[in-house]
Amino acid sequence: MTEKTAKTKAAEAPKAETTAFAPVAQILETLKGAQEKLQVPTAARDFVKRNAETAKVRVADAETSVLNATATVEKALVAVVGAGASVSRGLIDATIANVTLTLGAVQSIADASSPKDAGERYVAYLRELGQTNLTRAQDAFNTVRQVATDGAKSLQAEVGKFGSFGKAA
Q1: 66, 73, 111, 117 — which has fewest CB within 10 A?
Q2: Rounded mean pLDDT for each run of 10 residues along the chain, 169 residues in total
Q3: How far apart are CA 58 and CA 161, in angstroms?
């Protein structure tokens, strides 16, 4: 290749590059002019604004529902823990009452004048102990059952609210 041919090709290279990208440059120039003329329709802007407001309201509703559900669950758990503490206190009270009753029975039996009298006092002690403990156990069971029922109803109501919220959304 001669020096003249190399110079000619070097001079033609920028022209070929410019020629190849000329359509792209023309499209970009057309788009620049079109961007200034394009406008988003008012109806489209209003539609987006309305939907954004609706979304904000739904988010606020969801937040309120979740906070209410959390409060309900918290109340139910506090009630269950409170019932557990109440049952625990009841067991302590029952134990102390049983020890006191047993010590009283021991004193009573010691005061018996005959083996028959001691046996009758012992049977009376066992009867009283059994009736007292049965009553305590029933009361504790009823307390736990009531707390569990109330807690389950509260949780069920909250789950129902979530179900209805999902349907509304």
Answers
A1: 111
A2: 58 61 80 72 88 93 86 78 80 91 93 92 94 91 84 74 56
A3: 14
Closest CA to 92 of 136, 125, 37, 150: 136
DSSP string for residues in the chain: --HHHHHHHHHHHHHHHHHHHHHHHHHHHHHHHHHHH----HHHHHHHHHHHHHHHHHHHHHHHHHHHHHHHHHHHHHHHHHHHHHHHHHHHHHHHHHHHHHHHHHHHHHT-SSHHHHHHHHHHHHHHHHHHHHHHHHHHHHHHHHHHHHHHHHHHHHHHHHHHHHHH-
DSSP state of 113: S
The residue extents of the domains of the chain are 1-39, 71-169
